[in-house]
Structure formats: structure tokens, C-alpha cells
Amino acid sequence: xxxxxxxxxxxxxxxxxxxxxxxxxDMEDALEERWLFQAMSESYIPxxxxxxxxxxxxxxxxxxxxxxxxxxxxxxxxxxxxxxIKYLENSIKLSREEIVRTKYNKEENKLxxxxxxxxMEISKTYYKYNGNLMNAxxxxxxxxxxxxxxxxxxxxxxxLLSIHKESVSAQVRLGVETYTEKMGHEPDGIWLPECxxxxxxxxxxxxxxxxxxxxxxxxxLNASPKPLYGTFAPxxxxxxxxxxxxxxxxxxQLWSSTQGYPGDYNYREFYRDIGYxxxxxxxxxxxxxxxxxxxxxxxxxxITGKTEEKLYYDRxxxxxxxxEHAQHFINERxxxxxKIKPHMDGMPIITCPYDTELFGHWWYEGPEFxxxxxxNSAKKENVYKLTTxxxxxxxxxxxxxxxxxxxxxxxxxxxxxxxxxxxSWIYKKIHSCADKMINLSNNYTNPSEIEERALNQAARExxxxxxxxxxxxxxxxxASEYASKRVNSHIERFEKIYNEIISNTVDIxxxxxxxxxxxxxxxxxxxxxxxxxx
Amino acid sequence: xxxxxxxxxxVQSAHTLFCYFNVDTHKNDKVMPxxxxxxxxxVCSVExxxxxxxxxxxxxxxxxNWYINLDLDDMDVFVKLVEKNSDNTxxxxxxxxxxxxxxxxxxxxxxVYYLNIPNKSMELxxxxxxxxxxxxxxxxxxxxxxxxxxxxxxxxxxxx
Lengths: 534, 160
Fold this sequence. Notes:
The complex is a heterodimer. By secondary structure, chain A is of the alpha/beta class. Chain A is built from 20 helices and ten strands. Chain B has two domains: about 5-100, Immunoglobulin-like (Sandwich), CATH 2.60.40.10; about 110-145, no CATH class. Helix content of chain B is about 10%, strand content about 40%. Chain B has one helix at about 130-145; strands at about 5-15, 15-20, 40-45, 50-60, 65-70, 75-85, 90-95, 100, 110-115, 120-125. The two termini of chain B are about 45 Å apart. The interface between A and B is large, with 79 and 58 residues.
């Protein structure tokens, strides 16, 4: 059968890759830097291996990856890469010790060998790209298999910053500029942090030459006029920016706490790591230097069920299950397109956005799920093709014009995860700093060299305080002390710089130290905060 | 000028707003010395340029922020921070920014406008027959999906 007869729709899988700016050369063995290292070794590198294998097997796949500026920056940071190398070496060393320690336990020993091999392969892939994962992403971009998009500068939740249009503009503009610098071309699309949209945001996207963004399903379903085909067709805002709505069914298949694939009993149990389970005298060299127990990445059990008596993880069984789940996911898309297409004028699209870190870090078998999905989606028996938003949009002759509804992909589809009794204190502080930053930008039209550096650092501190990660972590009470400290320390640094600028007493040595710690956006120009009418 | 506005209003959801404010209690000479400082929020909607007060909330416990519940969604709202004087009159301390709350339901506007991508021209599609059959199918499709309103969140937790 010809493609034109067979194809009933397009599926766009979008992976959002983000880790907040966790870089602490000022601290010894900072726990939070491990967030990046875990994401690199458990998600990004295994996915890079998947993308490489598919290319090697001549599979014509399409997928979209967003890369946030903090992630792009930290992946290329020399200090963090040196720390990552030590992290990897330690993981390999521990897995080798585990091979010895578990020699009388057949199941654990088999898994210890598995981990040793896996860490070695991760290390090999890391060095294949010269210790810089951005090299891998640039390669996939160049080859055209992956469409990369940007995000806001520090993943600020834009609707909650919109008290000052300048703050939102700065987040978007720096997101575009950082992407352009790192990838060598402008992005077509943007991942709005937390998929958070509010009215008038599209005008700022338009100003930055962005063609599309991803929105929560209700952003499209409650848009006005009501979109004819719901989330199965893109809509275009009055300012000419295209919105693609998150598909509800495919989201539930992965994220649902009751029906989601990652909860299958055969998959690896995230919460049983030898970093917590083994005696301190044995595990001490592999955990935090201050004796805080942490994940080592070596976990011997499977989810098993709602019991504390966990059974050993069986890798072969888990791999069988992941193929089954990927095929189920594919079948569901085939059924969906077959059902929908007769009711539509053009081709439907199913937009499936997820966090990249779900695949591998949270759901250990996730990269293999992606591999199986991409590999088997290419088969002729399917009624759909894989696509990217840009490719799909380029085929559209007309797009329905609607104004998306403000929304986010958080709980309840609103902003309550990022604005509630636990974290609302943040906004008073960052709005106050934004006021000051805008004033500085409007008034310091011809600063001295030192003032210029101080003004640029003030902008960095404000941006870092605005990250949506901090209110999220505080709400979830996971590393809330750290998140609160991060907001407060950036605000304090901002205030100190502000006071020194206006009193003409910039402490150069202190400034230099802060420039070295919070070194994101080395080419920032504080004038991005200048009001448009100034 | 910096800190000119004393009250800032933010949208949390279709039916909940959040505001924070700074109050200088010494500015109002109508407040009797030693009396309680009576602050209220007057919540106002704006429709077709006409302002309408929709509720008054008493601020308690010297709070400097407040969550405001609204019965209706999809509207332009602002709040006035007012102080009750000893003669039971109100004195406005600050007026917030205007926010627009999200719509919590599908729009009743069923017009179909298309942007033709090649020439960027706008057209109103008036083929009601095609519309009504598609609309019926997709209305029922998404209604059924949303009946199972299990929250599908995103984002893993950092740390443990």
C-alpha cells in the first residue's frame, strides 16, 4: 500500500531536557551536582546510545528534544565535566567491588556484572563525544533525526514573572540567544517552562522569531474560538505563533500513577539503592563526603508490588516487558489515528511531551522504551509516521486561529504547584528585584567597565532566582532547604550588587568571585531588561 | 518608580488569585491612634471597560498576602487595598495590576477562522455541515477522556 493511502496521522514525541543550574565550585562534593550527573549517566547518555544505534541500523526516526540554557551550559562546563568523570570512575569502581562482595549471591552478582558493563559503556559513549554531550546533540541536529528546541533562560515560569514584561522578554530572549550560540542556528520552537502559558506571552515569542510552543491539553481544548479538532491539530495564536497541545491519552500511558507503564512490577525499583541499604563502613567512599547516604545507581530489586519484600530485578524480563509496552503504545496510536482521521479535514497530529529525565533516571528502562517505540514506529504496518513540530507545520496549508487558554502541565493544569502557601514568598522578592533591575537597565545608559560587569552579574542573579525548580522543590518538600537557600542567596547577591552600584562602591574582588560561581550566560548584556519605551 | 505599586495580583488558577502587598500604617491620618489597622481587599472585575466590585475581604492577622477565591472564571480582575477609617469610610491604599483569569471550560465561540499558511491570509470557514459533524465527534471524544480526570502531572522530584 502506498504511504498516501496508509498514513492516517503523525506522532510527535517531545522530550524536555532540563536540570537547574547546579554548579558549586564553592562547596565540597555538593549533593545537588549529582542531579546533573545522574541525568547524564542514566538518561542523556543512554538516550544518545539509543539514537546512535537507530542511525546505525538505518532507522528513519524523528523526535524532538528541548534543551534548556542551564543544561546546555552545564553540559559544556569544564569544572562539572571534571566532576562527572570522577563520578563515573567511582561508579565503575563500586560496581567492581560489588562483583566481589556479591560473589556468593547469584542474582546480585549477575546484576553487579551488568552494572559494571553498563557504566563502562556509558563512559565509552561519554568519551566518544570528547567529554561533551552537546557534541552528540549537535551531531543529531546536523543529521536531521532530532529537532532541538530551546526553553526560557533559567526555566522561569513565565506567567508568574509577567508582572514585568521585561522579565519575560529577558527569559525568552536569552533562551533563544543561548540556543543559537550553542547549536549554531536559531530555534524554531520553544519549550515553555512547565508548559505554562498566559495571555500575551505569544507576542514575546513572536518578537523572538519563535514559530511554535507546546502547551498543556487544556491550553488548546479551552482555547477560543473552540478548536475544531481539539489537540489533534495545531492552533495559531492571534500573534501568529503556533501551539501544539499535549495529547491526554499518551500522557496517561506513561505518567498515570495507576495505569502508567513505569509502575510495572518487573521494572527496576527506584527507591532501593545500595547507597541506603549497605553498611556505612562499606559504602562510605561512594556516598557524599559528609556521610550523607545517596543514590549510587546500583539497585538490585524490581518494583515487585506494593510490598517492602522486594524481589531481585530480572533485566531480561524487564527488557521483554518494555518491548511489550512500546508495542502497546504503538497500537494505541494506530487505533487512535484510525478513529480520528475520518473526522478531520487534514492529517491529525498526536503530540507526546515528556521529561527526558523520566527515561532512564526515574524509569530505568525508559531509554529502551524510546528505542523500541522509534524503531517499531518506522514499520510499514503502522498507520502513522513520526514527525517533529516544524516538519508537521511545514505541511499544513492552513491552521485554525485561536487564543490558547492560560494553563500549565502541573497538577490541576494551573499554576498552583509553583504558587501556593509554601512558596509564594519567592515572588515578592523576585518581583522587587525585577523592578530594580529594570530601573538599573533604564538608567545606566553608559556604565563604566566595572559597573557593566556588576550590572550583568545582577541580571544573572535575578535570572537564577527565577528558576521554576525552586518553587517546585519547595512544594514537593524534597530538597526544599536547598531550594530556599538558592532563591535567597541569589536575591542577597542581587541586592548587594544593586546597593553597590547605586552607591558607586562595587567590591571588585567579591564580584569576581560571584562571577566565577554563577557563571551562566557569559555574554549576557543587562540591557535586555531595558523597558521598550525607554 | 520602584515600589510605586503597593499591591501585586497574580493568577494561581481559574478561580484563585494571589496578592501580596506592602502597607505603611503611618500614612493614613484618619486612623485613630491606637486603633486596629483595618485592611480590606475590594475585588473588582472589568467588563467592557466598566468596573464592578464583586467582593470585599477583610485582611486578618496583619497578613501581607492573601488568596482570593472567585466564583467565576475567564474575567479581568483587579483588587483595591483599602483601609477602613474610624468613621467607617474607606481609604484606598493601593490598586493592583489587572489580571485575566483562565477559562475553566471549553469556549462557546464555535467560529472557525483559518490562517492560510502560504499567504498568511485569514479566512472564516463557514461550512457548517463539516463543522457540526466534526464538532460533535470531538466534543464527545474529549468529554469522555476528561471524565477520567486523574491528574497527570509531570516532572520528577529532585533529591529523594
